[in-house]
User: Fold this.
Amino acid sequence: MDYTAVVLLQILYMIAFLALISAGLAVVFGMMRVINLAHGEFVMLGGYTTLACQRVGIDIWFAMLVIAPLVVGVVGLIVERLVIRFLYGRMIDTMLATWGLSLLLIGMVTFIFGSSAVNVPTPLPGYQLGEYQMGGYNLFIIGVTAVLYVAMWLVLRYTRWGLIARGAMQNPEIASALGYNPRTVYMVTFSIGAALSGLAGGVLAPLTGLLPASGGAYIAQAFIAVITGGAGAVIAGTLSSSVLFGVVSQIVSFAYTPVIGEIAMLALAIILLRLMPQGISGRFFRNSQ
Amino acid sequence: MKAWPSIGQMRWGWFLASAVVLLLLPVVTDTHTPTILLIWALFALSLGLMWGYAGLLSFGHSAYFGLGAYTYAIAVINIGESTAPVLLAIVIPAVVAAVIGAMMFYGRISDVYMGVITLVVTLILFKFMSATAGDQYAIGAARLGGFNGIPGFAVINIPGMPEVSLFGLPMYYIAVVSLLGCYLVSRWILARSFGRVLVGIRENEARCELLGYSVPAYKTAIFTISAAMAGLAGCLFANWAEIVTPGVFSLRSAAEVIIWTIVGGVGTLIGPVLGAMALGMVKLLLGEQTVIDNSLLLGLLLVIVVLAIPRGVVPALQGWWRGRTRFRAQRAGHRRGRPRASAPRGGSSGTSESKTSRPETTGSAHRVPQAGRS
Assistant:
């Protein structure tokens, strides 16, 4: 009974984890058809921002929930202005440039913080579930993810800005004819996507620990969750693929080992991509580059 | 004029000159560093052949390089004599690539999905190989060794004579012969109708399909050939390093070969080779100091190249050079009153090599009518 609860909680946590790290990528990909391979490094930057704030004595909740998204959002804005905006419509070139960016950011963080692993203290105590010791912070992650997705849905569905964003996403020509410069929309969207990645990084830092190269651990999972989810529906697509991959990887992990769980997830992604080549998002990718 | 048999754009003079330089290089310098540069060049050549001519970009080409390295190490531990392991190190990556390629190309997935799938395959191999510590993960007598990899296997020996192992200078010559051989094979492939169809697919897939060519079959074939070359490079790498670790599958190694290729020049064969050698040298030099992080420079370089010279250095230089020679030829021809008939050497338009550097061809196309008018 307790064991079942533990397994269920772990599955729920895995789903939340996937949805959280994919949110930023999903927004950028869904709105702009830009695949940002530096996404993992944005998450990593969020973590390091939290670490830096915590070291100078800023309250850790404030650091991870406010400062980390702001800092990474600004980084995203700079990146968009300097690199991404020259490459719209050139999908493969964008992937290459953002890959370069990811190496660049890893190099910079290594330069500043050193290449050894560091930990951020967990601000929540654990709790007892039957005979199992559970991390209370996992529940916080699940909560943050739920709030984040509800907020994203509300903003996209009910605010004026959400309307403009959805309009520019569906038909950039009409949106620009109505007076909304798609380039501005893209710029803001990319920055918000980066901020969401920063939030994910900040919130996850106490659980995962930090390494300059730790972005690589996120990018694959976020990547396949978003791509499999499809570009057509940012929230529904990403959530559904997070649920699918989260359940599969955790069940396989419990049955075998976490590594096999992760491999199962990646293999499932390949099969899904093969089965749905013309799926929701396949349409948009024809003749890209 | 044709003193040498021509293979497409083959420049025999340059080829023989480089061959002589490579063969004589051990006279002046130690061969340890040149050997690894040649191996990396071969790896980049394998990607450049596929990416530059068939337009297929594998984001995880290190999968086949690493498979070649692991296959050699595992096979040589089990077999002892190196001839079969070397062949296996070429065949197994090729077979894996054929399966994955057929799955992707007959599924008619787009280039972005191809990028995702090739990358994920590499990640799977990396995760799996990193997690194989312990006695239960062994293939025959070879323990996979997890993150520490497989050390201490026998290096290549003269076929049939396991006691005469080849390392140091002979190893260098093996690398030279492999690189030159693969270059010739690539040129030969591109000179055949097979290669022409590949370039056609790159330029217009639908048209090739409608002309009756099976596009998935061609793509799978070139993917397989490219993986076989990458596997050979991986096999040589295993011999050079005398250890294989999961690092050969890492994202970083996958990124490096793409950077070498794109910096050198996509759409040429010599570009990736030179790019890998030059940047490989930079990598080795940077590895010796700790002031500047290697990935910082590598990343910056990739961003700048994609933004500024997306086709790479060699095509840019070629374009500049051809534009110059053609301009001179036209001026000379104009003086003699024959505007068009005087550009036999610089004018190689219509072949695969010049087609790829688009800015150059369009530039010269503008220039020709200008000269005719004036």
User: Anything to note?
Assistant: DSSP finds 15 helices and six strands in chain B. Residues 151 and 243 of chain B are 4 Å apart (CA to CA). The longest helix of chain B spans residues 215-241. Residues 1-7, 338-374 of chain B have pLDDT under 50 and may be disordered.
